[in-house]
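ARCHIVE CARD
Drawer: 12
Card no.: 0347
Subject: one protein chain, sequence and derived structure
Cross-reference: see card 0346
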Amino acid sequence: MRAKEIARSTPHLRIAQLAPLWLPVPPERYGGTERVVHVLTEELVRRGHDVTLFAAGGSRTSARLRAASPRPLWEVPSGDHFAIRVVQIEDLIGCADGFDVVHSHIDALPWLAGARIQAPVLTTLHGRLDLPILRQLFAAYRDRALISISDSQRSPLRDLHLNWVATVYHGLELAKHYRIGSGEGGYLLFLGRISPEKDPAAAIRVALRAAIPLRIAARVDPEDEAYFRREVEPWLRHPLVHWVGEVAHAEKVELLRGARALLMPVDWPEPFGLVFIEALACGTPVVARPCGSLPEIVRDGQHGRLARTEDELVRAIGDLDGIDRAACRAYALDRFGVERMADDYEQAYRAVTAGELLAATAS
């Protein structure tokens, strides 16, 4: 029996989805983890599971909502953040015996509750795992059931032999909310968030060397304001560089459809990167460095080009004519749709509720 058939044979479960409280679910604009939690929750409800979503006030869901905060934590004075997050865990503890599985998207905080959470806890790790302090944390909690969002995400902790249940790639409602485009705009697109690890400064230099217009559709968080002022803003006076700013979904899709390529020269161990599957769903090739999960998401030469140096990235932009935009979209819909993600999570739920481990993609 194939994995998908096993997953769809899973009996209806009582599932707690534990979301971060920083943004509503779904987020209005930026917010990758919250978007994934939203589409997964909606798909699980559609499949007949009894789902309760623990999330920030203002969240919208077809599941049962338990709001741990009156509003998203971005809107709450900073001194109250930890207290509200603790209240979220206490709320879960109070009703945990009513769930077959607790699916956490908030890292380690629920682990502190130990046996007070009377249901198996499965934790999807959404962030980078190469920070030194994390080794101490995971060494102390080796038995926790973990989901990675790419095989490469596990690499920094591989020697700890943690309790990896599976790798589950993110999925979105790509067929429903993204349409293929022809790239008629002829521009390159940088999309997402301004930060040193995303390296928009390199994207600007590469686009200018390739003599192709670059549109930058991104948000600037307060902690990255100085970087933006120093490394990005001076270039915005150049006629080939156009600042768009943060965009809503509909405008984002149109930007992707019109782009010759998504240019994201990320310079960090990217755990996944939703923007890459969004681009492919619009038929838009990806040009990026082969960092972190990129080689798992983008097949070099089929769905874009992966190159390390700026010289190589410039050449990669000139070598996109053989990329089939329809094939990019078909690949994205097959591999990164919400249905596949829900299949994989159903199989993981089945394993942890039975006290078993799945054969993980990587050890």
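Annotation on reverse: The first helix runs from residue 3 to 8. Confidence is low (pLDDT under 50) at residues 358-363.
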